[in-house]
Amino acid sequence: MAGNVLVVGAGGVSSVAVHKMAMNAEIFGKITLASRTKSKCDDIAASVKARTGVEVATAALDAMDVAATVALIRETGAELVVNVALPYQDLVLMDACLEAGVHYLDTANYEPEDEAKFEYHWQWAYQDKFKEAGLTAILGSGFDPGVTSVFATWLRKHKLDGIRQLDVLDCNGGDNGKAFATNFNPEINIREVTADAKHWEGGEWVISPAMSHKVNFDFPEVGPKNMYLMYHEELESLSTHFPEIERARFWMTFGDAYINHVTVLQNIGMTAITPVMHDGHEIIPLQFLKTVLPDPGDLGALTKGKTCIGDIATGPAKDGSGEKTFYIYNICDHEECYAEVGSQAVAYTTGVPAMIGAAMVLGGQWKAPGVWNMEQLDPDPFMEMLNTQGLPWQVHELDAPVDF
Ligand code: NDP
Fold first, then answer.
1. Hey, what's the signal peptide range on this chain (predicted)?
2. Which one of 104, 147, 188, 352 would you pick to mutate in the ligand 1 pocket, going by the greatest count of ligand atoms within 8 A of its CB?
3. Residue 90 has pLDDT above 90, yes or no
4. What is the atom index within ligand 1 of the atom nearest the CA of 295?
5. Could you give the residue range(s) of every CATH 3.30.360.10 domain in the chain?
6. Cα of 208 from ligand 1 centre, angstroms
7. Alpha-helical segments (H) within 53-146
8. Residues 14 and 89: beta-carbon distance below 8 Å
């Protein structure tokens, strides 16, 4: 039987997730979409209605108000809250789910607003509360974290006895014609790329300055691109849950123009997250910058090219044939995504896994009391849905372990 869902947040990722939920009516019953700005929810609902014929209910909600969220969950009869608002809302939405007695899922780990700290400990601290309540919380059901974590688990279940080295490679080979624009929420994106790079090596974190380690990699169907070593939150959960990992790294591609713009913005203080006085008002430079940058939600019609995101993993082969390396990835075309749901591929590759994770909870495949990162759950039903829901994957053996 289909389950009711409350989706919180009405940005680029939400729009894709809600369209895809509506396309899977046998899994998703009543869909309610709530955000601070109700008109954004109404625009998404109108697009869903036009494309699929499905009605989406909408509501105004400030998720920082736990009582209001609890009231809305009860009113909608939702079994699950899908949090595709911002990482700042994770803990309050988890609190609301516990109070209302419903399951929880998000796509990014909690961050305090005044510190760019991407750490799981705040959400892992909810483990006992969710377990005791018999409720499920799924953390990070986007592409990375999300699909890349499930890819690693699938390789570990079917191909390798353990993962010795893991590299997550995130390539956006798309072009939107703008001098500078981010692919998802500019504030969150810039906080991420200006943070120190950090990777897991020999049982400890190795820290290096942001964007200081560059490698040129030839991506399938995209071609050669410069990718940069970065910290990304799944490194923390993967190195915790797969303790055999000796080295885990995250790489993301950026063009020279993007790097130049971020460098200048950083040098002149526009990426700062501490308040400054401007004309008698306190403003946060990065939040002001977000206001003047293109809205990623408007880039769909302009973006051409493909994304290629995946994992390269090395470890002892299951068949006893010695050490093997596999490259597992998805290729997604910006224009095809736009034709299907009216969004570019970065929102698509996040919104589709959010929908699939939600389907796993409602369908019972991933319904287990507690707080879970994606790599802790059975990868098979999720991997099957990726193939049928627009994110098909491929796996190839490489001749040798990569050594960038
Ligand atoms: P957007 O900025 O486009 O949308 C965020 C939405 O959240 C907006 O509609 C906004 O509200 C709403 N919101 C913010 N604060 C509140 C609040 N207090 N109460 C209710 N709604 C609120 O973001 P994206 O769609 O680009 O990203 C969504 C999430 O997905 C982020 O957490 C991001 O980090 C994550 N992400 C994860 C990826 C992955 O692969 N795992 C990749 C990309 C993104 P309003 O209605 O006022 O505009």
1. none
2. 188
3. yes
4. 3
5. 147-343+392-398
6. 28
7. 66-76, 90-100, 121-124, 127-133
8. no
Q: Where are the beta strands (DSSP E) in 173-299?
A: 197-201, 204-208, 214-219, 223-230, 247-253, 276-278, 281-283
Beta strands in 23-154, from DSSP E residues, in sequence order: 28-35, 57-60, 80-83, 103-106, 136-139
The fold for domain 3-139 equals: Rossmann fold (3.40.50)
Query: Tokens 């601070």 identify what position?
Result: 36
Cβ proximity of 172 and 183 under 8 Å: yes
Tell me which CATH code domain 147-343+392-398 carries.
Answer: 3.30.360.10
Nearest protein CA to atom 39 of ligand 1, as residue? 142
CATH 3.40.50.720 residue ranges in the chain?
3-139
pTM: 0.95
What per-residue string of b and e applies to 355-382 under the rule 16 or more CB within 10 Å gives b?
bbbbbbbbbebbbbebbbbbbbbebeeb
Is the pLDDT confidence value at 403 over 80? no
pLDDT digits (tens, 9 = 90+) for 352-391: 999 999 999 999 999 999 999 999 999 999 999 999 999 9
Region 346-355: what's the mean pLDDT?
97
